[in-house]
Amino acid sequence: MSLLPPEDEQDDIEVAWEDQQRISSFSKLNNRLTDIQDQLKLKQVSISQSTLPLGFQSRGFRAENSPPQEEKEYYDDLSTEFMLADSSSGPFLYRIGEAFFYLPLKDAKKQLKGDLSRYNREISDLNDRAEECQKGMKELKVMLYAKFGKQINLETNDE
Which residues form a coiled coil (predicted)? Predict the structure, then answer.
């Protein structure tokens, strides 16, 4: 029994071992792409403002009440705060990993520059990996649709 309408049914096409391998490769690439997209979403959402100069709590910048924001936006906001601060404003509480350190403005700016560079590199790497997966999936779709036509569905949820 087939789920296809009678006009779309074709004669049974034999599925060769190579076809099974292509279908399996498509599935692996699709799962990898989903994982990469999830990682990108995690990178772009929900970072707390944990790098604040001392005394910012009195100006309303309390980390526990901060709304989630994109990591890139967070780094940009922090960079703006550092530009507005002068070197006499005292040490800054800067989060590195799971620990907090008091850093002078100069060191905090240097750390921020490194963190922003790392963030941009990670996003770029994830985007490159996603493009590779999409390219491979597109090539496999062409081959599999050429052989199986409407008897195979290779559309993903985002398409």
Answer: 109-143
Question: In the prediction, which pLDDT does 79 show?
Answer: 84
Lowest mean pLDDT among 32-41, 93-102, 137-146: 93-102
**Fold held by 17-151:** Helix Hairpins (1.10.287)
Instruction: Determine contact, residues 32/133, Cβ cutoff 8 Å.
Output: yes
- Buried (b) or exposed (e) across 140-154, using 16+ Cβ within 10 A? bbeebeeebeebbeb
- 3-class DSSP string for the chain: CCCCCCCCCCCCCCCCHHHHHHHHHHHHHHHHHHHHHHHHHHHHCCECCCCEECCHHHHCCCHHHCCCECHHHHHHHHHHHHHHCCHHHCCEEEEECCEEEEECHHHHHHHHHHHHHHHHHHHHHHHHHHHHHHHHHHHHHHHHHHHHHHHCCCCCCCC
Burial class (CB in 10 A: 0-12, 13-18, 19+), 117: exposed
